[in-house]
Amino acid sequence: MNAPHVNAPHTNAPHTDIPHTIASHTNAPHPLRTIEAHEFDAWARMVTTTYGQDWREGALRSARSVIEPARTLAAYDGRDIVGGASVYGRVLTVPGARTPVAGVTLVAVLPTHRRRGILTAMMRRQLTELHESGGEAIAALNAAEATIYGRFGYAAASHLARIRGDKRDMALRADADPGPGTLRLLDADRARPLLEKIHDTARLRTVGWVDRAEKYWDARLHDPEHARHGATALRFAVHSEPGGEATGYALYRSEGRTVQIVELVATTRQSYASLWRYFIDLDAHDHLTYEGAVDEPLPHLLRDPRAVRTTVVDNLWVRLVDVGRALTARRYPAGLDVVLEVEDTFCPWNTGRHHLRAEGKTVTCERTRARADLRLSAAELGAAYLGGPTLTALAAAGRVQELRPGALAAASRAFRGEREPFHVSGGAFPAF
User: Fold this and answer.
1) Longest C-alpha distance within the chain, in Å?
2) pLDDT digits over 418-429, tens only?
3) Across residues 236-240, what is the average pLDDT?
4) Could you tell me the pLDDT band of residue 10, with boundaries at 50, 70 and 90?
5) Helical residues (DSSP H) of 36-117, grouped into ranges
């Protein structure tokens, strides 16, 4: 939350009108094409069936309003849709900048049609179209299973902390400063404009967050009873400064004696402490759950840090579609001059040597025949891209090879971020 605000570099808008002639696969055993608007229900039934859910009118209402049919693939067996995947065009906060990202979501293949190459064909089509059209240089997704997407060049670039707290043992430290602000519980209509402003302020300086346009807010706040799994409707707590400026909010619900914190966003340390004091003092609840950053400040606010238990899991998976454009879209806190020998079997246009130079806001990445300093695959670059997993740690696992002494430590420092990257998804649908 406290990363500095840095102006984004100039980038051209991503191409979203991708012609159907690119990688059309019309002669494939299960041909791929983008869906028409009238095919949404059939496509959505395939998705819900794949994920073991019942189709009901409205189950994917939020997805209907946000997916772009021209960027939503379907695989066909005759007239039947048997697989699919969609892309949302978003803007991702990366170290020192913001850049367009292809948010890959709602990837599914019916159980009857697995192990036929459909998923591989869809992933190849998506990445090839992005490359050939000059679209987003980075793709990202939340992986339902950690073993699926590595073979397509994706890697876990951020992690999240699943926090469970015993409220009976939770108390703020005496020196915690919740400030003089106030909290109010508002209904959705009154809260929404405040939430939007707070979120937009926070996401500009939080690596891993994406923009949230109106249709994505509709999806985030869509709260049908069947999706609550026995919990209450969403509550909206908003923190305001004495002068009236809103600087924090929390979306939460209750299930029995557990309060489920769905989203907590604060733009000041005082609003952060105030929101947590609210949940610690909330009556009729013994426990709380929350998914936050790996370096979440909460334990440092508590008298007893052991009152919260944390499980760390992978969060956002990143794929560098075009290595050169992706590496120049972010900034590097330390000067860097390194030649990277990149291997990329799934996107062969990335294979080769790339000379990456960074000094302040000036970043260049050019093809070269010069001797390489580091050897790695595009997946390792994706893992380190947001400043989370370090190149040094990846090298210790045998995934990065140092060819010039000292190059690994220098590159690892330059790729590292000030805070652990953390991605806030937009709810079950869309997943990204």
Assistant:
1) 69
2) 999 999 877 655
3) 98
4) very low
5) 40-50, 61-66
CA 210 – CA 204 distance, rounded (Å): 8
How far apart are alpha carbons 304 and 176 in whole angstroms? 13
Res. 275: pLDDT tops 80: yes
Structure-token pair, residue 277: 């004091």
Pairing of strands 316-320, 336-343: unpaired
* Chain CA centroid to CA 369, Å: 35
State both tokens at 391. 């190149």
For residue 58, what pLDDT is reported? 53
Write out the H or E segment, with its range, that includes residue 137.
none
Neighbours of 242 (CB within 10 A): 9
pLDDT tops 70 at residue 1: no
Instruction: Enter the tokens of residue 256.
Output: 């029995």
**Which residues are within 8 A (CB) of 21 and not within 5 positions of it... i.e. 6 or more apart?**
none
Phi/psi of residue 14, each to 5°? -65, 150
Across the beta sheet with 32-34, the strand order is 32-34, 72-77, 80-94, 97-109, 138-142, 316-320, 155-156
Higher pLDDT, 333 or 8: 333
* Other residues' Cβ atoms within 10 Å of the Cβ of residue 332: 23
Query: Tell me, what's the pLDDT at 53?
Result: 79
Task: Respond yes or no on whether the N-terminal peptide bond of residue 430 is cis (omega within 30° of 0).
Answer: yes
Instruction: Give the whole-angstrom CA distance, residue 388 versus residue 431.
Output: 21
Nearest CA-CA partner of 133 in 11, 15, 10, 13: 15
| pLDDT at position 59 | 55
DSSP 322: S
Backbone angles phi, psi at 413, to 5 degrees: -65, -40
pLDDT (mean) for 110-139: 97
Q: Where are the alpha helices (DSSP H) in 82-161?
A: 118-133
d(CA 358, CA 348) in angstroms, rounded, equals 25
> Does residue 18 have a pLDDT over 50?
no
Q: Which distant-in-sequence residues (6+ apart) come within 8 Å of 9 by Cβ? A: 97, 99, 328, 329, 361
